Amino acid sequence: MDPALHAAAVQGSVASLRKLAAERPDILGSKTPQENTALHIAAELGHAGFAEEALHVDHKLLVSKNADGDTPLHLAARSGKVSVVELLIAHSSTTARDGQTGEPSPSTPGSAEAQGALLMANKAGDTPLHQAVQHGWSAVALKLLDAEPSCGHALDAKKQSPLHICRPGGPRGRREQDRQPSLGPRESALLLIKDRRVNPCILNREGQSARSLIEKRGASEEEMDTYEMYLWKKLKKHEACRCQKQQLPPIATYQSLRGRRAGHDEYFKHSVETYTLVATLIATVSFAATFTMPGGYSQTEGTAIHGHTAAFKIFVISNTVAMCSSVVVVFCFIWAWRDPVKFKLDQLMWGHRLTIVACLAMVVSLMTAVYITVAPTARWPAYVVIAIGASTPAMVFLILGKEALYIPL
C-alpha cells in the first residue's frame, strides 16, 4: 500500500484521501501485506468520514476481503465502531456480493443481493454479527440484526450461530476477556436471547444447542458462574416455547447441575455474607431512625414536629423502603445454602436489586433528614449534603458503569 494512503487511513484524513485519489484514481486498490485496503484500516479504527469518502471513490471496497476473509464490516463490528457499522450497512443497500466471485453489483434496497452483503463470511465462517457478539459489542449486534434479521441464525464453519459463541466464559468469549470489559459478552448474550429474530433451536456440528453447551460446561470441572446459570434458565424457557417440534438435547435439572459442582464457591460464600451484612446494617439503621425522627417529637402530642412538611413525608417513605427492602434481602439470603444453584438463578438477582433500592432509599433519607433539621435561615449545609447525596449514585455508575446493575459473581 502507498505509505501516504496508509497514513491517511490511520489518521482518518479525508483531505489527504481526496488529494491522493485526484492524483491517482486507482490508489484505493492498493493493499497491505495482510491484504487490507484503506477502508479496512479506517473501519477498524472508526474513521467514518474517511470510510464514506473511500466508498464514494470506489464502492467495490465495501465487499473487499483481506487475507483472513474479513470485509471492512467484519473489522468495524469486531472493533465496536458503531458509526462505521451504520455507514457500511447503509452502503450495503446499494452494493452486494455477486455470486461466488465476490465482485459487487448494483442492487435495490432490501433485495436478496443487498441482504447477502451483511451475511458475508470470512475464512472462519464468521459473519459480522458473529464478530460483534464474540467481542461483546451489543450495540453493533443490534444494528446488524435491525438491518438483516436473518443474520441472527447464520452459521459459521463449525455450524455455530451467534448465540452459540457469545456464552460468557465460552472458549471464544474467554479469549477476548483480556481485551474487552467482562460485561460485554454477557450483554450480547442477553440481547440475543431476548430478540425473537435469533433462533435458540439451532444445533451446531456436534448437535448441541446454546442451552446444552452451557450444561456441557457445567459438567466439566469448571464451575458455571451466575450469568451462565441465568442464561441457561432463559434459554430453557425459550426452547420450551419455540422449539416444541424440534429434537433437542435432553434438558438438565437444577439437581443435576448442583450435583456436578465440586463444592460451594468460596467467593460466592463471601458475597452472600457481604450482602447479608449490608442488608442487616441498613435494616437496623433505618429501624432505629423510625424512633428518632429528625426534628424530634412534640412533648404535648407525641407526634413528629415536622410531620406536616413534604421533606418529612419523603423521609418516612424512603426510610420505610430502605428497611423493608433490606429485610426481604436478609430473609432471602438465609436460605442461600439450601440450593445454591437455584438461589443464584432466582433470589440472588432480586437480592442484588433490592440492595441497590435500599441503598438509594437510605441516601434519600439522609438528604431529607439533614434538610429537616438544618435551620431555615442557613440552608446551604443542607444543599451541600443534597448535592453530595445526589452525586453518589452518579459516581458509582461513573466508576463501575453498567456493572453496578449486575451481580458481582
Q: Mind sketching the topology for me?
A:
Elements: H1 3-11, H2 14-23, H3 38-45, H4 48-57, H5 72-79, H6 82-92, E1 95-98, E2 103-106, H7 112-118, H8 128-134, H9 138-147, H10 162-165, H11 171-175, H12 183-194, H13 210-219, H14 226-242, H15 254-260, H16 266-291, H17 310-334, H18 340-345, H19 347-373, H20 380-400
Antiparallel strand pairs: 1-2
Please describe what this structure looks like.
It is a single chain. The protein is mostly helical and 409 residues long. Among the domains are: 120 residues, Alpha Horseshoe (Serine Threonine Protein Phosphatase 5, Tetratricopeptide repeat); 140 residues, no CATH class. Strands 1-2 form a two-stranded antiparallel ribbon. A hairpin with a 4-residue loop joins strand 1 and strand 2. Keywords: ANK repeat, Membrane, Repeat, Transmembrane, Transmembrane helix.
Characteristic key phrases:
409 residues, mainly alpha, Serine Threonine Protein Phosphatase 5, Tetratricopeptide repeat, two-stranded antiparallel sheet, 59% helix, 2% strand, flat, ANK repeat, PGG_dom
Instruction: Tell me the fraction of residues in β-strands, as a range.
Output: under 5%
User: What is the number of strand segments?
Assistant: 2
Mean pLDDT: 78
Overall radius of gyration: 28 Å
Briefly, what is this?
With 409 residues, this protein is mainly alpha-helical.
